[in-house]
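User: My advisor, Dr. K., asked me to get a structural model of this assembly before our group meeting. I'm new to this, so sorry if the format is off. These are the inputs:
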Amino acid sequence: MSYTTWLREGNFIDGQWVGAESGATIDVINPATGEVIGTIPNAGDAETKRAIAAAEAAFPGFAAMDLMSRIGLLWKLHDALMDNQKDLAELLTVEMGKPLAEAMGEIAIGAQYVRWFAEEARRAKGEIVPAGVNGRRILVTHHPVGVVGMITPWNFPSSMLARKIGPALAVGCTVVAKPATATPYSGLAWAALAEEVGFPKGVVNVVTGSARKIAGAMMESPVVRKVTFTGSTEVGKELIRQSADTVKKVSMELGGNAPFIVFDDADLDKAVEGAMVSKFRNAGQTCVCANRMYVQSGVYEAFLAKLVEKTAALKVGNGLEPGVEQGPMIDVDAVEKVEEFIADATAKGGEIATGGARHGNGGSFFEPTVIKHATQDMMFAKEEIFGPLAPVFKFETEEEAIAMANDTEYGLACYAYTSDLARAFRLNEGLQYGMIGINSGLITTVEAPFGGVKESGMGKEGGSQGLTDYLDTKYVCIDGI
Ligand code: NAP
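Assistant: The format is fine. Below is the predicted structure of the whole assembly, which you can bring to the meeting.
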C-alpha cells in the first residue's frame, strides 16, 4: 500500500471513471521534488454537463433513501477514510507538500466532519408553530436543496471537500465537485471512496480541468441549486455575480487577513506556541493563518525573541521525511509573492529578524521568516500573505489594537492572547471576525460553525449551521382543521 492506492487519473461521472472527451490531460507536479506524479483529464463544460445530468438523475432516489441507510453509507465513508488514513495522507503530501503529520490530521478531521454531519442529519428537525387563528396548523419542514456544485482550493485538498460532501450527502443532496488543478488527487479520492463504500451511481461526481469552463457549466445550470466555493475572494465575487441568473444558493469560504493580538498580560509562552501553529502550519498557506501579529509594547521584545528562536528552529524539507515541520510552498509564483511582501516591508523600515530568503532545498522552498517593526502602510497589512512570513507590529492600547485589527475588508479568523476575562469579552464584541481564538491559535473543529464575515464570505461549514446550508425550508399551512 502506498499513496498510489487511491490515486485516480480519471474523472468520476455517473459511476464511471472516464477521461476528457478530447483526451486532453494535465500533469500534476509534486511541489517538493518537481516530479510529475501523474495526469488528470482536462475536462470542461461537456463533461460537467454530463456530471450534472447524472447528479440530477440520482437525486430523487438518493433523497428518498431511508435516513438510516444513507447515514450508514456515511459511517462507512468515515471508516474508509480512517482505514486508509496513511495512504490518503501520503497522497495529499505528495501532491500538496504539507508535512505528513499535518496531512494525517487533515484526513482525520475530514472523517470527523463526515461523522459529525451523519449525526446532525438525524436531528434536522422541523417545527410546528402556533398559528395565529384557530383551525390552522403551521408546519416548517426541511428538504435537501438538490444538486450541489463544489469548487475547492489546493491548500486543504481533502478536508475542504469533507466540509461540503459530508453535509450534502447526509441530507440527501447529490454532488458535482471540482478540486483545484494543482491538487486534484485528494478530491478524486473522495469519488473512489464513495464508489468503494457503495454510494449509488451519480450521487458523487468529480470533474477536473478548466476552472472557468467547469464552474461556468455549474453556474449557468438551473439544475444546480447551490454552489459552495472555497478559495480566493476575487473568484468568490465572480461566482456570486454569476449565481444571479439562476438565483442559486451560494456558500463562500473566502480569503482572510487574520490579526494575532498579544497583550501585555498574556502568557507569553502560550502566545508564541499559538503564533507558531497559526502562522507556520501548512507553510503559512491557510485562510486562517495569522497574517498580522500585533504585540503590546510591554512584551514586544520578549515575544519577538521567543518567536524568532522557534521560527529559526523549524525543520524545512520534503513533507514525507520524518520530523519535517514545513514543506515547500505550492509553487514558485507563491514564493515570488512572499518575496514581494518582504521587499515592500524592508523598503518601508521593516527588518528581517530571521529567514527572508529562498531555502537551500531550491524549488518552492522558502525560509520561515519573521519581520520586525512592521507598520500599517506595508502591503501585508492589507493583503493575505499565504506564506511562511510573520510580520510583527507594535501597539500601545486595546482600542488601537482593535482598530488596527479591523482595518481590512476581510473578516475570517482572528486571535488574541490575554489573561483578562473582561477584555476577552470586549474583544469578542469589538473584533469584526467570524471566528475568534482567545488564547488559542488553532480553532477549527467540526462542532463549530467555520466561516467569515465582510469579504471573507457567507455561509458556515461545521456546527449545526453547516448542515442547514444544504437544506431548503418549506412552510406548510393546513387549514380547515
Ligand atoms: P482560487 O484561485 O480562488 O482557487 C480556488 C478554486 O477555484 C480552484 O478549484 C480553482 O481552480 C477555482 N477557480 C480559479 N479560477 C476560477 C474561476 N474564474 N471561476 C471558477 N473557479 C475558479 O484560490 P486558491 O489559490 O486555490 O486558494 C487560496 C485561497 O483560498 C486563499 O485566498 C485562501 O484564503 C482561500 N481559502 C479560504 C478558506 C476558507 O474556509 N475561508 C479555506 C481555504 C482557503 P484551478 O485550481 O483549476 O485554478
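One thing worth pointing out at the meeting: Residues 151-156, 160, 178, 180-182, 211-212, 215, 230-232, 235, 238-239, 253-256, 287, 384, 412, 452, 457 surround NAP (CB under 6 Å).

User: Perfect, thanks a lot.
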